From TrEMBL:
<dbReference type="InterPro" id="IPR052156">
    <property type="entry name" value="BCAA_Transport_ATP-bd_LivF"/>
</dbReference>
<protein>
    <submittedName>
        <fullName>Branched-chain amino acid transport system ATP-binding protein</fullName>
    </submittedName>
</protein>
<keyword id="KW-0029">Amino-acid transport</keyword>
<keyword id="KW-0547">Nucleotide-binding</keyword>
<feature type="domain" description="ABC transporter">
    <location>
        <begin position="3"/>
        <end position="233"/>
    </location>
</feature>
<dbReference type="InterPro" id="IPR030660">
    <property type="entry name" value="ABC_branched_ATPase_LivF/BraG"/>
</dbReference>
<dbReference type="GO" id="GO:0005524">
    <property type="term" value="F:ATP binding"/>
</dbReference>
<comment type="similarity">
    <text>Belongs to the ABC transporter superfamily.</text>
</comment>
<dbReference type="Pfam" id="PF00005">
    <property type="entry name" value="ABC_tran"/>
</dbReference>
<dbReference type="InterPro" id="IPR027417">
    <property type="entry name" value="P-loop_NTPase"/>
</dbReference>
<dbReference type="InterPro" id="IPR017871">
    <property type="entry name" value="ABC_transporter-like_CS"/>
</dbReference>
<keyword id="KW-0067">ATP-binding</keyword>
<dbReference type="InterPro" id="IPR003593">
    <property type="entry name" value="AAA+_ATPase"/>
</dbReference>
<keyword id="KW-0813">Transport</keyword>
<dbReference type="InterPro" id="IPR003439">
    <property type="entry name" value="ABC_transporter-like_ATP-bd"/>
</dbReference>
């Protein structure tokens, strides 16, 4: 197993937001965490990336306990992050934003830059444009491209579909699929349960800080409870 989150508890002050969540991600998989607003998806992802500390439980990545490792070291160890709200540097060009993604690496990354531009032709067209003037979808592409520049073993994605038009969501999701085909494992947090379940191999359903279901994604797409709660009242897919 590449990434193992074991019985983590996370607090905001006295409030326990995550009440014992366990998630496993195997090499080569796309795993998704779905759930309503406030279920704890983002907090779980932030805890994995090191932006929040945990009160108890453990996170093991690539055979090492990283529970107490600082966030930037987790990136260097191979946990790539494209944060919620994108985190693009607005006053830097697209190109420089991408180069920032490789800051922790040594050696030549020309081939990786070329691959990111190949995956995202839109970024290649706009390489001299300022990050802050890109559209929401383009900024999402840039955030993912920048994360890829660190050559992650696992890519952590926090709601990449947020605020995007359906066509752009489809584009982003098909690029995520392609990134996975090329060998990167993906852990995806999504409100858009339908799209996420279509893309992922396995999924976890979170409710109020706990996992209430975990199963192959295709199974959850057909689960009447999941359909009623997260897929538009079972209107099909
Ligand atoms: N900075 C914070 N301070 C206090 N409580 C917080 C903070 N961030 C999140 N919470 C609380 O933690 C719980 C989990 O929130 P979280 O953002 O992880 O959920 P989520 O499933 O990602 O939802 P959303 O899709 O709305 O982001 C919620 O009850 C939320 O109010």
């Amino acid at each position: 197993m590449l990434l193992e989150i074991k019985d983590i508890h996370v607090h905001y002050g006295k409030i326990e937001a995550i009440k014992g969540i366990s998630v496993e991600v195997n090499e080569g998989e796309i795993v998704t965490l779905i759930g309503a607003n406030g279920a704890g998806k983002t907090t779980t992802l932030k805890t994995i990336s090191g932006l929040r500390g945990l009160s108890s439980g453990s996170i093991t990545f690539d055979g090492k306990d990283i529970s107490k490792m600082p966030g930037h070291k987790r990136v260097m160890a191979g946990l790539g992050q494209a944060p919620e709200g994108r985190g693009v540097f607005p006053g830097m060009t697209v190109h420089d934003n991408l180069l920032m993604g490789a800051y922790s690496r040594s050696g030549d990354f020309t081939a990786d830059l070329a691959e990111v531009y190949e995956l995202f032709p839109r970024l290649a067209e706009r390489r001299t444009q300022m990050g802050g003037t890109m559209s929401g979808g383009e900024q999402q592409m840039l955030a993912i491209g920048r994360a890829l520049m660190a050559k992650p073993k696992v890519l952590l994605l926090d709601e990449p579909s947020m605020g995007l038009a359906p066509l752009m969501v489809q584009q982003i999701f098909s690029i995520i699929e392609e990134i996975n085909h090329r060998g990167t494992t993906v852990l995806l947090v999504e409100q858009n349960a339908q799209q996420a379940l279509k893309l992922a191999h396995r999924a976890y359903v979170l409710e109020t800080g706990k996992v209430v279901k975990s199963a192959p994604a295709a199974e959850l797409l057909d689960d009447p409870d999941v359909q009623a709660a997260y897929l538009g009242g079972g209107l099909g897919h």
